[in-house]
Amino acid sequence: MAEQINQVSTGKKIGFAVISLIIAAAYFTWLDYSLMNMQGLDYFYLFRK
Amino acid sequence: MAIITKQARKKIWAFLALGMFSGLLLLPLFLSLPTGASGADPVPAASAKAADAKSVEKSRDVWYKTEGPVVGAPAPKTTDGPKDYPRYNFESRVLLWVGLQQHLYYGSFVLAVPIFCMVVEYLGIISKDKALSRKYDQLAYDFVKISLTAYSLTALLGGIVIFTFLTLYPTFFTYLSGIFRPVMATYALLFIAESGTLYIYYYGWDKMREGFLKWVHVSMSVMLNVIGTVLMMLANSWIAFMQSPAGVDADGRYLGNIWHVIHTTLWNPINVHRLLGNMAFGGGVVAAYAAYRFLTSKTDEERAHYDWMGYVAMFIGVCFLIPLPFAGYWLMREVYAYRQQMGITLMGGLLAWLFIIQAVMIGALFLTTNYYLWQGMERMRGAERYQKYIKYMVFVLIACFIVWLTPHTIVMTPAELKAMGGQQHPVLGNYGVMSAKNGAINTIITTTVLSFIMYQRGNKIPTVKWAPLGNSFLFGFFTMAYINIIWLAIYGYYIPANVRVGLSVPQVASTLSCLFIGVTLNALMLKGAKDTGPIAWGQISVRSQYALIMLATSFTWMMGLMGYIRSSVRLFWHVNEIMRDNSPWAFTHTIGFGANMISFNVLFFWMTILFVFWLGSLGAKKAPVTAPSGQKVPIPASSH
User: Fold this and answer.
1) Which of A2, B83, B220, B507 is most exposed, with minimal Cβ within 10 Å?
2) Under an 8 A CB cutoff, do B488 and A41 touch?
3) Pick from B499, B502, B530: which is nearest to A2 by CB?
4) ipTM value
5) Torsions phi, psi for B466 (to 5 deg)
6) How much of chain B, in percent, has pLDDT values that exceed 70?
7) Where are the domains of chain A?
8) What is the tens place of the pLDDT at every residue in B13-39?
């Protein structure tokens, strides 16, 4: 089984990594926004100015 | 039949013992009930008229702002003289400082260790692997054995502290004990209950080794920890009262509600911070004990046992170290909410430099933890594949450590000030602000989590079908967490302070996300993983054991430092804004003097605890646990 895992193509690995990065970016943006909002603060303060 | 009768008799005795200790646990509550009741409703309706006739004086609580009958005398106004401040030919405050600090060290240790015992003993019970179960049981027994001698020393030091108070600060102590009379009585009763439970827990270990009695034994450890935690909380109420008094009026007169006196605004933050701190400290001390035993071991079996013990203790300690800064943050937030000036004195004024020293200690703690984990990977075959990443992690940790300890402003001569062009360095000054520091410490903690994940995977290769996806997700998640933490740190420079302070919350949440999501995902991936070789307990460098000792020493030094900071912030007050300290020592010491005193206390504690370790080793049997079959227990690397 371990050998099978190593057989996953590099292209597929890069694909997984890109998808993971997108999911993680969305998660952290949501986290930043919602936690600032919970404190009554504007996360996008700089961009609205 | 005879066996059944014997078992039944054992059960009855076990129930009786548990019942007795439950009763002892509840006794202080019953005893303090009348006081509490009179505190909650001091003037019964029926006697209200009579009370009015006598015109009971009422006053307002300084914190709760409620009205209550004046029950106690006002806080004494002391004068510098033998009546209020009798003294030896020495600074009384320093004598008390040493006594209290030593009592606190030992108290923290004996409160933390039984919690470890409870967890480890429980793990032993639920473990299906008999060899591992015995190993856990032996470990829990080793833990409690160390704490037993320390327990006697704690009580002894407590007595010394009371005598020192009575001898050197009689007026202040009389006032404080007058207010806390029911609490002190409860404390004494609980202490008796704690002692009894501890001794039966320890000496009954062999008798209650199997079956139902083992559960009774674990229940006893739960009770022991409940009593210990309540004891700690009661003692915390005294210091919390001194810092943020409640339940008294502006003259310091007790208003009859003992709950208000206990439940001051800083009580709960101090409780949480101390509990976590005690656990981290206890883990550190036990890890240091294991390191000491490892270094003095004569056989491979012993070495393997104490290597494992050191790892478990370090792991528990670090688990409590990670949330500790957040508990400290809550405490500081409450300090600011209580008195803003007090917060400024702590973090931006007189005591701010001590926080820089604290930053150095925290950085050292995390560096040492990472170092130990990397060293620990040496005992796993297959962990070599992660070695190549360590140098990058060292770079990240050191860079963040340097930012983390950069001061906002530094003490300078006028010539230096002129040469630098102001109080802040034109480049380095940018790293001395909270935006940069928050980013740095969160990066340090995230890197520590990453080290731990590497350690977990050291001798394992995931075999689950979704392993490539899981690995990619871990990579993506950690990468984005680092980017997010650093992005928030940079963003903080461009927005106003009132918005900037809020950024620390998502930064912390990013770090905690890595901890919970990363470790959980990794654990799921490692289910049924292929072993590349067993963990060769005992085959670890001697340096790693010194790292454990360093970890414990850093905890000890930091506890001394933070205790000094918290106590010093009262400045010239015995009880903040209520009772003034009029002794000749009502001033704040220099940083150098404070640091020397902390170092002395640390040294004294470690010398005495080494004595305790030595005493423990006198009665020690040969470690009975052998490594599970198939595990290599070679001689540790000796050339460093």
Assistant:
1) B83
2) no
3) B530
4) 0.90
5) -90, 15
6) 89
7) 21-49
8) 766 766 776 666 666 555 555 444 344
